[in-house]
Design brief:
There is one protein chain. By secondary structure, the protein is mainly alpha-helical. It has a domain of about 100 residues.
Length: about 200
């Protein structure tokens, strides 16, 4: 065993794989876009733009409303990450807050925060947890409890269905993918004709 396999590179590799495993189990990108949508909504009403001796303040009378909307979007983004069971509620709430921010907070943070929060909410509503792949079609598999010792994620094995081969009688059979052919009963039709090989 080399010193490189137990050093910094191996630890970074394990952390990256663990993060990827964590990210796949939740609507990660929906939460990230929602978090990013809250930032311009909160920032612009309290920011001062200085051009030479001229100071432009973009504060509105509803500055506290902008703060509340931005903080709620931030909380909803974290909820999508850590409580993915309520992702649909969080997504719908993000979309509604994005729409309200158009009126209350400088056109939703100059449309930047509005678009980010709207996109994040839509992603959260559309996301659904995937089912693990199995070797047998139509079967279910259990998720592993922890990462293997080698640090690699489980490999997904799928058996392709193969092309569909038409038969002269009009029926279609999937072409065999693995070595061997279909049983004799399936290759012969009722009228005695064989399917094209």
């Amino acid at each position: 065993m080399s010193a490189e396999s137990t050093g910094l590179r191996a630890r970074i590799h394990r952390v990256r794989l663990a993060f990827r495993h964590w990210r796949w189990q939740r609507p990660f990108w929906a939460g990230l876009w929602t978090l990013l949508g809250g930032l311009p909504i909160v920032y612009f009403p309290y920011a001062n733009l200085t051009l030479g001796q001229l100071t432009i303040r973009m504060a509105t009378t509803a500055g506290s409303g902008s703060l509340i909307i931005g903080v709620l979007l931030f909380v909803l983004g974290l909820t999508m990450w850590f409580q993915s069971q309520v992702r649909i509620f969080a997504g719908v709430a993000s979309i509604l807050l994005a729409l309200v921010s158009l009126v209350i907070s400088n056109f939703g943070g100059f449309l930047l925060g509005f678009l980010f929060a709207l996109f994040g909410g839509a992603l959260a509503v559309a996301w659904s947890p995937g089912s693990p792949a199995t070797d047998a079609p139509g079967g279910t598999a259990e998720l592993p409890g922890d990462l293997p010792e080698s640090g690699d994620l489980p490999v997904r094995h799928e058996v392709p269905a193969g092309p569909v081969v038409p038969v002269q009688g009009g029926d279609a059979y999937p072409a065999p993918v693995l070595a061997g052919a279909l049983p004799e009963e399936e290759t012969t039709e009722k009228n005695g004709r064989h399917r094209a090989g």
